[in-house]
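FIELD: query
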Amino acid sequence: MDIELTDPLVWGFPCFLALMLGEMAYVHGHDPAPAPAARYAWRDWLASCTLGLGAAAITAALHFASAAVLLYWVYDLCNPATAAGERMNWLGYPALGWAWYTWLLCQLGDDFSYYWRHRFNHTIRFMWAAHLVHHSSTQYNFGTGFRNGWFTVVYKPFYYLWLPAIGFHPAMVLVCLGIESIWLFQLHTTYAPSWGFLERIVNTHRQHQVHHASNLEYLDKNHGGILNIFDRLFGTWQPYDENIPIQFGLVHGPETQHPLRLVAFEYQNIWRDLRGARNWREAWQYVFGEPGWSPDGRTLTVREMRGRERAVKAGGRKRRAGIWLGGQ
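FIELD: result
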């Protein structure tokens, strides 16, 4: 049985606009002392809207169509129809149906795929070049949630092909992708309270603030979508600490709000580095290595920055211990 379902983003998009306008009205009309990151700076907001509308147009023209084609192609390949009209998965069982628990399993699989795609967005440079746009604002509001890169659509569908390959219907996968996007958008606000014990399971607004921070202790943390269990399982979990003032934005980013310059910023940097590469290894690292990699330490990856910070702290402890021992 083939079922056509409506993409949740069709009705989610008007909700995005309503949330943005509502938050904007509250920040500028009712909150007597809004946090700087929560305010709507007009140039920043216009850049976010332009980038979001551009990403939406590209998604509508390319991603949704290409993703649907790829998902259905993999589904047909791995779940061929029998003479009786039933689809049998290549692993030997009937293709998964439409039961409520199948939906939950599909959403869990989608969340797993999102975690790894999002994590690689931060740790593989050519993917970071596309994703960096989303982190380029020093604001943290619903406008930031609308700010998306334009080229993630090139590789995004490939992270989800395993779902139709094991028997989930492509229409179900596409709906789960839409649900994930809606959840992620509404995380971009500082006005949501703590969720209490649910924060042990669910990715919440405070946890996503950590993800958008440029503080060294927060970099490349909390990549989860709807759940945070994969961050906890794979070592990228970082709790929100009210005693650490969050600095939103990029460690090294473009000083511009021009949408085209934001989209092109890291690609230009990659091209510059490639022209200076001395061998194929360096060229590979500049494209597929971690953001910040350099052969001479001129720029540092997040892991290298943390390593240097640990070394400095360890050196400070040794010096203090030496002073204390010398006073005995």
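FIELD: remark
The CA atoms of residues 54 and 150 lie 7 Å apart.
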